[in-house]
Specification:
This is diguanylate cyclase. The protein is of the alpha/beta class. The protein is 46% helix and 21% strand. It has 15 helices and 17 strands.
Length: 455
């Protein structure tokens, strides 16, 4: 029996192309051009997957998602979004969408997204035998739907420990480079989880789709996980994302093994969704041109640093006579120069520092854990690097650009983030009004920038 898909898009061309893709892949497809028509079809019959654009006439794709989930909570939903419309995609993921696609969509991407949706659906169907254990089923659903890591890991570990009748549980996640990282513990502390990871590293590296027992060990080596630690794989779409370790003196009973497997699969689904959500949110905090962070991220980063209580410094930088570059070489070359400035800035700071395109030809650098003395050295390094670099060399222009930089530090110059930025901006403006190509330290004696006299 073919899976049924309801495709909703107000663009006729998109409906035609996507439906052709899906029918060629063996899916049964119904079409709707807006939310009203889609809801009418959803009331008439059940579908396996709802595939909808987030931007629809009259009622948005998010409204359709909410209404569709009320009609059929088991309906799998994938949303389609444009690259510059990531915020609705984030909200859709938080509202229950299984996946998102960024236009233009290829046949392979579309088929993979539907396979993911249907894999989730089959996961739920596979565990219908556990519906008699309503608490377990609901717990698994809560785990799968949780997109807050601070809540997800403790909840999942407590649930797996209960199902395995283990007093302790620990989660080890597999990083992108293949290494293992302890990321949570239940009934014990993080240090014990770290020791367990070191003792079981060989078994973790060899872990496959089935639980693995850690049998050979020295007395006390596994601590509260001894005498026999059981490693439960956490997988999603065939990929090993991590493992949950529990204390299992003997083999799990069939019902217990099925329960912990179900919970670990839902944990894998939640971890995958967290990763995809981070990817979407990351796009929302990037400047489209330079791929530096934008002011939304700067606001969050300043809050984070002020809450930590550590000193930090802010560099406010403006390119000197940038308008001349646009006038002489054109705006396209000007944009390329801004991207090249971003590369020069990256070469001047550490990975933990935050680079921001503030707007136009203005940049902000947040120097983490650096006071005004260290900040002044970095600012001068940046100023010299900009001055010595020859921009647009690939175009044969070899343009020389300089920058004026203002520096303000926390807590030396101010204790409020708005005041820190304002003082750094004033210091930069002082440089623009004097010699340019200079670094100035903040001072509360500097006058506000006159209205209409921004560089």
């Amino acid at each position: 029996m073919a899976y049924s898909v309801l495709l909703v898009d107000d663009e006729r061309f998109a409906r035609t192309v996507y439906s052709d893709y899906l029918r060629a892949a063996g899916y049964e497809v119904e079409l709707a051009e807006d939310a009203e028509a889609a809801l009418a079809l959803l009331r008439q019959r059940r579908f396996d997957v709802l595939l909808t654009d987030v931007i629809l006439p009259g009622s948005s794709g998010l409204d359709l998602l909410s209404a569709a989930k009320q009609l059929d909570p088991n309906l799998e939903v994938t949303v389609i979004t444009a690259l510059d419309k990531v915020d609705p995609a984030v909200r859709a993921m938080k509202s229950g969408a299984s996946d998102y696609l960024v236009k233009p969509v290829t046949p392979e991407q579309l088929q993979l997204a539907l396979q993911r949706c249907l894999a989730t659906r089959e996961l739920l169907a596979e565990n219908k035998v556990l519906r008699a254990h309503l608490t377990l089923f609901e717990t698994g659903q809560r785990i799968a739907a949780t997109l807050d890591r601070d809540k997800l890991v403790p909840m999942a570990l407590a649930s797996v420990a209960t199902a395995a009748r283990s007093p302790v549980a620990a989660l080890m996640e597999k990083a992108a480079d293949g290494s293992w990282v302890p990321s949570g513990a239940h009934g014990t502390d993080h240090a014990v989880a770290t020791e367990l990871l070191a003792a079981c590293r060989a078994e973790l590296d060899a872990l496959g789709a089935e639980p693995t027992a850690r049998g050979e060990h020295a007395p006390g080596e596994l601590g509260p996980f001894g005498p026999r630690a059981l490693l439960l794989p956490v997988t999603e779409e065939g990929a090993l994302l991590g493992a949950v370790a529990v204390n299992a003196p003997g083999p799990l009973e069939p019902a217990g093994a099925e329960a912990v497997g179900y919970l670990c699969r839902n944990l894998g689904l939640a971890l995958r969704n967290l990763g995809r959500l981070r990817q979407v949110e990351h796009l929302a905090y990037l400047d489209d041109l330079t791929h530096l962070y934008n002011t939304r991220y700067l606001d969050m980063a300043l809050d984070r640093e002020m809450q930590s209580g550590r000193p930090f410094s802010v560099l406010f930088m403006d390119l000197d006579h940038f308008k001349t570059v646009n006038d002489q070489h054109g705006h396209l070359s000007g944009s390329r120069l801004l991207v090249e400035v971003a590369r020069v800035l990256r070469s001047c700071v550490r990975d933990e520092d935050v680079l921001v395109r503030y707007g136009g030809d203005e940049y902000v650098v947040l120097l983490v854990g650096i006071d005004s003395g260290g900040g002044l050295k970095v600012a001068e390094r940046v100023r010299r690097a900009i001055e010595d670099h020859r921009f647009l060399s690939r175009e044969g222009a070899r343009v020389r650009v300089t920058a004026s930089i203002g520096l303000a530090s926390y807590p030396e110059h101010a204790q409020e983030k708005s005041e820190i930025l304002d003082l750094a901006d004033r210091a930069m403006y002082r440089g623009k009004r004097s010699s340019r190509n200079v670094v100035y330290m903040a001072s509360k004696d500097l006058p506000p920038i006159p209205a209409g006299e921004r560089p």
